[in-house]
Amino acid sequence: MPDIAYVNGRFGPLADAVVNIEDRGFQFGDGVYEVMRTYRGQPFSVEAHLTRLERSAQALQLSTGHTAAQWTSLIHEGLRLSRFPETKIYLQITRGRAPRDHPFPIDLAPTTVLTFRELHPLEASVRNAGVQAITIDDIRWGRCDIKSVNLLANVLARQRAKEAGVFEAILIREGMVTEGSVSNVVVVRNGVIQTAPEGHRILSGVTRAIVLELARKEGLPVSEAFVSREELLAASEVFLTGTTVEVLSVVRVDGQVIGDGAPGAVSRLLSARWNALIG
Ligand code: PMP
Question: What is the structure's pLDDT at 1?
Fold first, then answer.
């Protein structure tokens, strides 16, 4: 089964897909993206991802050129062609092709790319044991709510995590936890589930919103307020949320053990509720 790409109206093998070198995505990182996944072969939370895509695009004065219904039908077409058991769907829109100049022509045709690749779920043993993280300065720009393809700070942070032999880098701005390099960060403190508020400092995760809703349904107290690095380290539980990580416990941060060093009761409950939702 092949990896499939869609570029500006055409599906084909991903290995053959190309974009022009004067594309502003290539030259300026001038574009937005979404990562979606399937469960049991069906794309998950497409509406929420497309709503966020539209919001990101509007913030950059970028037209996606497609309605939600058109995106959805392209996604289904790609899934029909690729036919993996589970698929990671990447959608990217850049401002299009123009001679290199910072200001952009208003009427450019955007470059539209979708890729369909096999999704390999995280191993159950990793999930059951929990993962480790490091903290690192959040050096990103002031609009982290826009899912822009400008990901250098995230790339460098995740590389540092990899070099440290841990799963995620947790970003700290002015002493407070914003989010992970590829995930949102949630802590449990004194029985309260706490995570950074929506706003310009974080990406408003699709998974974050669903997991907070699951927590509220369980009657668990939820607080959307920043947590300091010290509070993170002293938390009884820490977990990550995201399309690919789902609900993933963090059992050590900067080498310090969180709680009793194993996925805690709240993380396990929310993980079970998540599995029930997607199953
Ligand atoms: N924050 C960042 C920086 C991310 O890259 C991601 C993954 N897209 C998330 C949070 C989680 O978002 P979602 O749950 O929508 O995948």
Answer: 62
